[in-house]
Amino acid sequence: MRRRQFLSTAAGGLLALPFAFGAARRPAITIALKSLRNQFFTMMIAGADQHRVSHAGEYQLTIEGVQEETDVKGQQAIVQRCLERRDDALIIAPADSSAMIPILLKAVAAGMLVINVDNKLDERALVKANVNIPFVGPSNFNGARVVGDYILRGLKPGSKVGIIEGLSQSINAKARSDGFRESIRGAGMTLAGMRWGYWVSDRGRQAALELLDATPDLAALLCGNDNMAIGAAEAVAARRRKVLIGGYDNITDVAPYLASGRIAATADQHPALQMQYALDLALQSLRNHVRQANIQTITQTPVDLVKGH
To answer: What's the CATH superfamily of 140-268?
Structure first.
């Protein structure tokens, strides 16, 4: 009998993909993502689909995601479905670095291979639970520091800089803010304030407006992702100010902002490649019967500076 797998689209629907299976059972892998409205994750989906095509017949793939970055319950429901299906592996970009851990520990205990991408899980909680959940991704700290160094290089020492962070409960958001802070410290600048933009452009715009209004001589805004940087660019235009803006992710929508100079730089952390690295790690571990505890803890992926004009 011909079976079909289903791939969640960026619009949140389900796309049926034909997949013929032979006598031998192919491993079942599920990818659980955060907001499917965020282009970063649609780029991850594209990378996963390319990997599936190039490894045709080697595994079954299901991709699911929530609509909101903070939808922990929605992601927990995805993992619960994986448990009910008895999937072989789960690759997850967690909505929350701590709140998702209990159900992921349940998945590991059930024998499911769990791999973490994008937003790193809380290391202290994993150590306390004595569980290894490997991380595949770049150094968010280094990526943000490179962006910050580039943005601030031409400013006078003592210039005032604001940070717009994604979510306070996300490890990757904190790591990027720490990288920005290191750039501010190294350049001899002053951190004027920080606001949260929740990864989306409208909240990023509001955060930028608050920082601009609170600091009339603000020289730069360092944003934890491109969606918030786009919102910040709109805020700067609305206030008719000249402020340098840095982003992170290099999503498709940021290209015209880079081309016009409204955003000075961003970081490309290659989301499609991240997902392909994670799928390779999952397949290799399953083939070689590598236990969760013995998988390499970190697989580093590249992150590159992308300059505007």
So the answer is: Response regulator (3.40.50.2300)
Kindly state which CATH superfamily the domain 3-137+271-301 is placed in. Answer: Response regulator (3.40.50.2300)
Instruction: Give which of 79, 131, 72 is closest to 97, Cα–Cα.
Output: 72
pLDDT at 298: 95
Contact 202, 174 (CB under 8 A): no
User: In terms of Cα–Cα distance, which of 193, 187, 188, 195 is closest to 217?
Assistant: 193
Low-confidence ranges of the chain (pLDDT < 70): 1-24
| pLDDT the model gives residue 3 | 31
Q: What is the pLDDT of residue 205?
A: 98
What is the residue-wise DSSP string for 181-247? HHHHHHTT-EEEEEEE-TTSHHHHHHHHHHHHHH-TTEEEEEESSHHHHHHHHHHHHHHT---EEE-
**Tokens 């994750």, located at residue:** 41
